[in-house]
Amino acid sequence: MLSKYNFFRSCLTAWAIFLSVLCQGQEAKVKDELRPALSVKLTGFIEQRLHAAYNNRILTQDVNRLVVPFRNRTETRCWQSEFWGKWFTSAVLAYRYRPDIVLKKKLDAAVEQLIATQTSDGYIGNYAPAARLEQWDIWGRKYCLLGLLAYYDLQKDTKTLEAAKKLADHLIQELKDKNTLIVKKGNHRGMASSSVLEPICLLYSRTGEKRYLEFAKEIVKEWESESGPQLISRSAVPVAHRFPRPANWFGWEQGQKAYEMMSCYEGLLELYRLTGKQEYKEVVEHTWSSIEQTEMNITGSGSAAECWFGGKALQTLPVSHYQETCVTATWIKLNQQLLKLTAAAKYADAIEQSFYNSLLGAMTPLGTDWAKYSPLSGYRPRGEEQCGMGLNCCVASGPRGLFTLPLSSVMHQAKGIRVNFFVPGVYELTTPARQKVLVSQETNYPVKGAVALKLQLEKPETFSISIRIPSWSAQTVLMINGEPASSPTGGQYFTITRGWKNGDHISLNLDMRGRLVYSGNGDQHFAIQYGPLVLARDSRLGGPDTDDALVPVAGNNGYINLEPCEVKNNTFWVTFKAWVKTESHKEGPTDPVPVLLCDYASAGNTYSDASRFRVWTPLLFEPRYAK
């Protein structure tokens, strides 16, 4: 009888799985405005950086070491369980960009090894039974869910989806059995734990099983409880001032934790897609504005000691534990979500600013390592190992931001194609009439501002091509097949709707004049920007000491002349000569002297005390002209 029972039980289980496969998936109520390119082959500097991270970080990861904690299950406070999911999700992004059999085998093995650790009740994690739900336990489960769902999307493997469902069901049941709120568990007013909202929403969209949608709604409801982070009701409050300064900076009462807060809002955008509830999108947009206006520094990142602190106004100061790379990568990911949903140029501008400066600046040239914190002056320090895992959270997070760029540089939109970023390569897309189109970009941007786009398609077709004009480009020239178009406006997309044919081309010349930016109390510091790049002093370039006060020799309307130059050290991406005045300590006028500048991503990127750098230069105070 027992064998017959097991036989029929197996049959019923198989039938249930079959039905779930037939019926799974829940169509979103809100569709993204933009969809990724089908494939892309990049060239140039960005491809070199992607190649380095692909080969020297993604492919070299010891997967077994990431899985060992899930087998042991003895942890009570640390976050080893996040590393598998962070590495895995970045590896899937890398694989989608460049499918490779070696990486595919590594992904297959990683999923198989992780699922093998799942307990009979569904738990995947590294915490001892008595410590479950506490500290970083749910946070780690979130990353496991994200990884499993990324693999399911890649392979449509039902075994992986079932493992994800069992993991989510176990969490839901465990919270119910212990009669506790998820916002009372974990760290930072429950933001770490309740950021599981994102994969729970993704799980519902892939299964259509209502319990996941109900759980997602319950999480958001708990946010607004007295114990919760109140991410909706306080969305109009600047992110650094939503709660009093905590006695324990990294304790539960810390409501300004940057990375975890943005992770929760990523989940809220997923819930918006599922429900169409406009308030959810507006809440994220309000918070985005607060972060952009009060926190983001000139290089496109922020946070001190991993929390919001009103940093935009304080960025000329030496800031402790500045610009966590986890924050940089998550800011890019949040902007990618908003860009897909809205197709608004400001989100692409924000991504570009962060990507070319703070993100690339955190990555070592060989792609093997990532800085945990990135100052705007001093030298770049290496991050320490965490939790005995051979890496830290930022080494795991950096590639998650890096590999968002390839398939989002040129994207599908309902009426045609949208060019978000100027990265050389060939992009494969489909037109509104469903024919294949190849868009090639020829450029060495941002070294120069010239971009050439060329179309390859079999049949002529009428559709739209929208090209982002960066907000800093005040004088932009755009031509179609050699004929000038009307002057594009910075900070918007320039849309061309016409009949396109094979060989049509668009040329774009962006305004790459050097721009002076002033900051600090009484404008006591200046910095220089070139296109999307922030420029910096570097002690390897010689000239005046990097800490000297200077006066830039400015041109009209806040621009400064930059002369491209070559230096013996070939580790710099771009280098320029500018003219400044120094303190002469004598009567009479001071003659200008040259100062050499490089891009922020290259500045100090030797992780050595000998390579000092500075973004914000102190202005020499002149009392005769003081206001």
Concise structural overview:
With 627 residues, the chain is α+β, with helices and mostly antiparallel strands. Helix content is 36%, strand content 17%. The strands form three sheets. Strands 3, 14, 15, 16, 17, 18, 19, 20, 21, 22 and 23 form an eleven-stranded antiparallel sheet that branches. The protein has a seven-stranded antiparallel sheet with strand order 2-6-7-8-13-10-11. A five-stranded mixed sheet has the order 1-4-5-9-12.
State the main characteristics.
17% strand, alpha+beta, seven-stranded antiparallel sheet, disordered N terminus, 627 residues, eleven-stranded antiparallel sheet, Immunoglobulin-like
Secondary-structure map:
Blueprint: H1 2-23, E1 34-35, E2 39-42, H2 44-58, H3 63-72, H4 81-97, H5 101-115, H6 137-155, H7 158-177, H8 191-194, H9 197-207, H10 210-223, H11 258-275, H12 278-294, H13 325-342, H14 345-362, E3 377-378, H15 393-402, E4 410-413, E5 416-419, E6 425-430, E7 436-442, E8 450-457, E9 461-469, E10 477-480, E11 483-484, E12 492-500, E13 505-509, E14 514-519, E15 525-530, E16 533-538, E17 551-552, E18 559-560, E19 563-564, E20 575-581, E21 593-599, E22 613-614, E23 617-618
Parallel strand pairs: 5-9
Antiparallel strand pairs: 1-4, 2-6, 3-22, 4-5, 6-7, 7-8, 8-13, 9-12, 10-11, 10-13, 14-15, 14-18, 15-16, 15-23, 16-21, 16-22, 17-20, 19-20, 20-21
